[in-house]
């Protein structure tokens, strides 16, 4: 899929917001500046977040809860995580029961940790647009591609 500009990237997040459920994991992979946080911002805005979502780079986990958003969300940035054992300290396994997880830099953990995730990989194309490829697990087969 080709995302021509920032508006298209935010729109993808908006479309995802229409189909996400508690317990879903969306893994957002790609180089710095590829659009991972923009997808998350579009999704969070469509779930009701009124202000612009900050990048969770320094907080590592940025939680959102109703009534701020329609359903509980953890926006996670694993860029600064060196040891996958730190996942236990972040409480990500527990959050999978009732929250949506938006995970930037998921490749910092073993891919098997995200076996059930909708895995979205972004690349920056020569013309500045973004290329998007998706790895779609069984739980997402009836929701992807977005309509």
UniProtKB/TrEMBL annotation:
Family per similarity comment: Belongs to the TsaE family.
GO molecular function, one term: metal ion binding
GO BP term (any one): tRNA threonylcarbamoyladenosine modification
Phylogenetic placement of the source organism: Bacteria, Pseudomonadati, Pseudomonadota, Alphaproteobacteria, Sphingomonadales
Pfam family, one: TsaE
Protein source organism: Sphingomonas turrisvirgatae
Main location class: cytoplasm
Keyword DNA-binding: no
GO cellular component assignments: cytoplasm
Annotated protein name in UniProt: tRNA threonylcarbamoyladenosine biosynthesis protein TsaE
Keywords associated with the record: ATP-binding, Cytoplasm, Magnesium, Metal-binding, Nucleotide-binding, Transferase, tRNA processing
InterPro entries: P-loop_NTPase, T6A_TsaE
Location(s), subcellular: Cytoplasm
Keyword Transferase: yes
């Amino acid at each position: 899929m080709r995302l021509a500009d920032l508006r298209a990237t935010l729109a993808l997040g908006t479309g995802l917001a229409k189909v996400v459920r508690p317990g879903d994991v969306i893994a957002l992979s790609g180089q710095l500046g590829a659009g991972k946080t923009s997808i998350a911002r579009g999704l969070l805005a469509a779930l009701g977040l009124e202000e612009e979502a900050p990048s969770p780079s320094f907080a590592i986990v940025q939680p959102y809860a109703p009534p701020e958003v329609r359903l509980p969300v953890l926006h996670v940035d694993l860029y600064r995580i060196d040891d996958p054992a730190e996942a236990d300290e972040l409480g990500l396994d527990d959050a999978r029961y009732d929250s949506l997880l938006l995970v930037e830099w998921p490749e910092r953990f073993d891919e098997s940790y995200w076996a059930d995730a909708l895995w979205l990989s972004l690349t920056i194309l020569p013309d500045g647009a973004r290329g998007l490829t998706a790895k779609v697990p069984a739980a997402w087969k009836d929701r992807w591609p977005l309509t």
